Amino acid sequence: xxxxxxxxxxxxxxxxxxxxxxxxxxxxxxxxxxxxxxxxxxxxxxxxxxxxxxxxxxxxxxxxxxxxxxxxxxxxxxxxxxxxxxxxxxxxxxxxxxxxxxxxxxxxxxxxxxxxxxxxxxxxxxxxxxxxxxxxxxxxxxxxxxxxxxxxxxxxxxxxxxxxxxxxxxxxxxxxxxxxxxxxxxxxxxxxxxxxxxxxxxxxxxxxxxxxxxxxxxxxxxxxxxxxxxxxxxxxxxxxxxxxxxxxxxxxxxxxxxxxxxxxxxxxxxxxxxxxxxxxxxxxxxxxxxxxxxxxxxxxxxxxxxxxxxxxxxxxxxxxxxxxxxxxxxxxxxxxxxxxxxxxxxxxxxxxxxxxxxxxxxxxxxxxxxxxxxxxxxxxxxxxxxxxxxxxxxxxxxxxxxxxxxxxxxxxxxxxxxxxxxxxxxxxxxxxxxxxxxxxxxxxxxxxxxxxxxxxxxxxxxxxxxxxxxxxxxxxxxxxxxxxxxxxxxxxxxxxxxxxxxxxxxxxxxxxxxxxxxxxxxxxxxxxxxxxxxxxxxxxxxxxxxxxxxxxxxxxxxxxxxxxxxxx
Length: 568
Description:
Blueprint: E1 32-35, H1 37-43, H2 51-64, E2 68-72, H3 78-89, E3 98-104, H4 107-116, E4 122-130, H5 133-138, H6 144-161, E5 170-178, H7 185-199, E6 207-213, H8 220-233, E7 240-246, H9 253-262, E8 267-270, H10 284-293, H11 305-316, H12 337-349, H13 383-395, H14 401-418, H15 424-436, E9 442-452, E10 455-464, E11 467-475, H16 478-490, E12 495-504, E13 511-520, E14 523-531, H17 534-567
Parallel strand pairs: 1-2, 1-8, 2-3, 3-4, 4-5, 5-6, 6-7, 7-8
Antiparallel strand pairs: 9-10, 10-11, 12-13, 13-14
């Protein structure tokens, strides 16, 4: 049997820092955040984002409060170049947002980058070259002086060309000794200071020095030592903004960034939910929420975590692990009976507005747009996995994860009452009655679709509690147009949070099934529909979810009216 050979690896050398101060520091304010989702995150995808997905990600980042966003590598890709031009020419960059672009220290790439930035109101030009011992020896076949000269020449090219941007662009400069963690500290310092000698930063015009753990090679404490040593020894420290860019090769990217901020760094680059090369970049959501849980304003809006997860999933085509801290579906769920009891007892005595102290819940789920209904859930013998398996393998319904969780609660309530086993046919009956054949107070009677210059016009006749209702809407697609018409006519404002579809069986006669979840305030409403065509199943799934929404709002209205009559 082949055995693992640990002897081929050598331990990472510690930093000789006898007077380190970072272990006694406490983070009291959030660093400057820079999202690299559209560059580092995007380049790691099997299918890189197209322009539409990039724009959706960009607008989501802006909406969350990011003021610095690295939007691409315009000199390396026409796609990135064109997207940058779309952002600038289309006026999509708010006044308070600075776009960042990356370029290697090569003349033609720098020239192309300058061209891409024309007209940008505020930008960061991020120059880099690798300085690691390994890449110097193997990739570049250069000594220290040779690699330093690459950095200096690149800095001079940038300095010589930035005047082409004119005075309309507020330009800041950033330099990264790529693979900083694989570079001798004294040499990394030497290269950075050589770049600074060219750019001549001042306290009023700071240069960003980014010190990346391009590959995470050590424990977080050593990275913190490196950052503190650099901050203590670099010349003209007051004219620099020290930035971090950590990867997750050792699963410590967040910890490394946190300790490095304690060590003197002021800025952190990362991605939403940790997408990025290999094991990913540092997850900004986790670090920001870690600060939040300690009473520190993260300077980001994370109050609609479901939307963030939905956008990341759509744009990256990567699922989010159900145990991903803060964002996973199960992170606020307790299956253990003792945990459930402790949570319930704490919630029973919790007073709104007081300090959050709930067993097993480090933060209030409501702060992320979640509800307590997701917290306490009994794990039956089969659980959601068993229920989902029966529906998929016996009946062909491949439930998305969110619906697995929701429907498992329905099954759980039945098994708790019966105290016995529930058979597959009974599971199907329960699913069919609860979703597909459920009594609906609104239904789609007839509809027509017209196309005009890429837009869809949707006209329909609905039955609302026996009364005919005519709607008309316009949108980028049939469903979008239907939703627009529903919102306007019914005067309700909801958001489609989840959508899934697949064929039931194979062949031309196979029916289509659609799953849909709507968000109305903090509430969620689901609909499932089966039809011969996907358009009809999508529209009817929407009707099912809207029907549940209207039932809830009607009940609330009735309760309010009863309360008013009683008071009078």
